[in-house]
Amino acid sequence: MLHHSPKNMLPPIIVSETEEHLLTLLATGAELTRRSEEVAQTLLSEMERADVVSDDAMPENVVRMGSRVEFEINGGSARSMELVFPIDADFDEGRLSVLTPIGAALIGLSPGQMMMFRGRDNRPHKLRVISVHQPEPAASAAVMA
Q1: Alpha-carbon dihedral of residues 96, 86, 99, 56, nearest 10 degrees?
Q2: How far apart are CA 97 and CA 81, in angstroms?
Q3: Phi/psi of residue 132, each to 5°?
Q4: What pLDDT shows up at residue 145?
Q5: Taking Cα atoms as reference points, which of 61, 68, 65, 58 lies closest to residue 16?
Q6: C-beta of residue 13 within 8 angstroms of C-beta of residue 48
Q7: What is residue 130's three-state secondary structure?
Q8: pLDDT value of position 2
């Protein structure tokens, strides 16, 4: 059982159909291998409660995979990280895995929203999203548009 607040106490989140599918597979795989099991369970719980929308209907200001997110933890100084899949994660390079407590808490949030998460220190922390920037579309996608 998760140690989350009741669902109605959590901020509403939005994820695209594609990302909901990919992140559910990722979390299920991590849960099966016992790697990052607690974070995987949290991510699965987030996908279950998310408002899933079509990829085209995804708002620009919502944290998704590849987003650059500026956030603060416990009112501290702002940090800016790109949310990525575990294989691309490199904290020193500013790429945060979605299979970390912070990454799982960020997915689906919008600027101004807050989310409690349990850190690797097993203590509760408050995360607040300041801004969200989406990656520039690939040149080929821009030409086709």
Answers
A1: 80
A2: 10
A3: -135, 130
A4: 47
A5: 58
A6: no
A7: strand
A8: 40
Length of the chain: 145
pLDDT number for residue 119? 85
Q: Side-chain half-sphere of 44: how many Cα atoms within 13 Å? A: 16
**Could you tell me the CA-to-CA distances from 124 to 43, 57, 96, 117 in Å, in that order?**
16, 33, 19, 6
**Under 8 Å between Cβ of 11 and 51:** no
- Consecutive 10-residue averages of pLDDT for the chain (145 residues): 53 95 90 77 93 94 97 96 96 95 96 92 94 79 49
- Report d(CA 118, CA 39) in Å as an integer: 9
Q: pTM (2 decimals)? A: 0.84
What pLDDT is recorded for position 138? 61
The H or E element containing residue 124 is strand 124-133
Strands of 79-84's sheet in order across? 95-97, 79-84, 68-73, 124-133, 114-118
Task: Round to whole Å and give the CA distance between 24 and 30.
Answer: 10
**Domains by residue range for the chain, with CATH:** 11-134 (3.10.50.30)
